[in-house]
Design goal:
Blueprint lengths: L7 E10 L2 E10 L2 E11 L2 E12 L4 H11 L9 E7 L3 E6 L15 E2 L11 H4 L16 H5 L1 H7 L2 H6 L3 E7 L4 E7 L2 H14 L8 E5 L5 H9 L4 E4 L5 H10 L2 E7 L2 E6 L16
Length: 285
Amino acid sequence: MSLYHPGVTTVAIASVSFDGVLSDVDELSVEEPLEIVVRLARDEQVITRSVAVTMRTPGADAELAAGFLLTEGIIQSEREISDIQVASDNKVCVALSPSSPVDFARLDRQSFVSSSCGVCGKRSIAAVFALKHQELRIGEPRIDSEVVHGLAQAQRAAQPTFARTGGLHAAALFDADGALLSLYEDVGRHNALDKLIGSQLLSGGLPLAERILFLSGRASFELVQKAALAGIPIVAAVGAPSSLAVALARQCSMTLLGFVRDSRFNVYADAGRLRETPAGLFAGS
């Protein structure tokens, strides 16, 4: 069986230990640039615009582009996408439908987005808060804490590339009973989530009103914002949330869980979706 994976490469290394130095090989997560281009034919004119270059792990490039366009507020629904073409030269072109209300003059993303940073590509503070999130239904879905305790193990078991390289973030989607529905890996945490959201967008699955999002790292403002745009009511993370992520989750009435590991977790926003807690409890208030 071939172990080839587009997101994995092998390099020669020197392995150093107390026993000495040995020649060895190691598997690394691939990081390459992806240019996202949008094309719109309207009023007998064809407008082509390079929206961003993001450093990502190859794979699910169409989903990444679709998710990026949605979570950046460039498009509002899958109906605005008429075609996606992935080229071999690390470029993906998204053709928008003529009825798309996209305003090219208002695209304010810088042309480069690193694998570790997403929201810092914004050109103004106002642009960070300009996107409108989905309305979340208060108290729905209701889940058991045992479901939360099982998320990390289920996610790790479904990360074959991480098991080989140890160098990837993951975003996983679960139902309210804790069944894993979808998972994407990437060197960039925001890319992994864009791939996940993009796949649901292209399949007509948004908004994700009955789902749980589990993140392999910390819960930053941008990841919570992307989840809110996709209509995800419960976000859980292995690591800590930032103060701005908590503020946004509370504003959106989203349940935000952090430090979900070792049979414990903290509730930072809207504890009412957990069956074991009173609906009126507001963590940290």
